[in-house]
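Try it yourself: sequence plus adenosine-5'-diphosphate, in.
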Amino acid sequence: MTLAVKKWFAKLLGDNSPDSSIAALPNRSGTNPKDDLETVRLERDELKILNHLAQKRIRYLEAVLHSIPEAAIVTDSSDRVILANDKAKEVFQFSLVEGSHKQLNECIHDEKFLDLLKQVQQFPSHKVAEHSRSVANEQRWYNVILSSITNVHKNGSVGVLAILHDVTREKEAARMKTDFVSSVSHELRTPLTSIKAYLEMLIDGEVQDQQTQQKFYGIIQNEATRLSKLVDNILNISRIEAGVVKVSKQNVPLAAIVKEVFEVLRPQADASGISLVDELTPVFFHVRADREMMRQVLFNLISNALKYTPQGGTVTVRLLVDEGIGQVTAEVTDTGVGVSKEDLPHLFEKFYRVSGSKNMAKGSGLGLALVKEIVETVHNGRVSVASTPNEGSTFSFTLPLVS
Ligand code: ADP
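Structure, out:
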């Protein structure tokens, strides 16, 4: 390869040192002009071939960059974006025609990210940084991996390669884990504090009369039961989420389970003056399900309906079979306090409780989360809710029917 070609090639790779300029062609003085012309022709042909090869390499590089699932950007030593894949254009909202170059600050309006690029450009290194920006109105988090591109002589940076690895989901999962731990601790603390306080009063002999003592024992027992239910619910949800729950599916008649749950809850309904009504299908309609889990689902929905319905109201459980599409829907309808449309989308979230209904009944906000996990994760069904404040609510779930 001739010297001029070597220098031209160095320039193509981004080496901007003055001695690599194509202008610095070898001195041909003192040679035959015919030979000179021939040499120039040969060099021109050689350059054409090399140019063609270089274009091919650039296209190949572009293809490599586009095949990376992360956002990737390559800059040169003059702070221009020379390559960027679609993901990067989406993250920073810019367009770049293939093969064309644009100044960095024309494409990227993100001071913090530009600063990261500048640091690596100025002090050639490898850097990993966390970066957050809003993409399509959504806050996203990235692990940005920046590497300076050094030239063949390794005496400086000719550009920077930046890869943005989207870690939004991991961030969200970590946040949810922290929220979950703090909610669990908060929920456990309430009954524990109460148990501790009543026990202390009893141990210190502050309560002498037997009637008050019995009352305190009752409170301690209730709080301990609440605590144990809470721990059971947390464990059940966690096991389902972790996929380690033991599921024993069989053909189950939902109508029979509704009757069983009604029997358990009837004393509570009677005590609150609430009528329990069933509109069931014949028992020969079965769903393929874990019987104990279905019992839990119906128990949670019906006991909620009783908790959030004032005296004199009605709770109706309806089973609707659609043999055409092969599914059964269970509806639990009450004439209770209802839920506002702001709260409605959050009801199935862990630990979510409607602030207004906290005075009506004790609870942990885990019952509906467990219903959703059992129906959707374990049984591939669907849960839904419709409600009108001060009129009532209908919680329903749909499962495939056993043919
Ligand atoms: P909790 O133990 O608090 O009842 P759930 O997860 O079962 O927990 O329910 C979450 C929240 O949804 C409740 O705190 C209540 O505000 C609301 N809710 C559930 N069922 C009903 C209902 N039938 N009517 C009105 N609000 C309800």
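One thing you can check immediately is this: The domain at 247-403 is CATH 3.30.565.10 (Heat Shock Protein 90).
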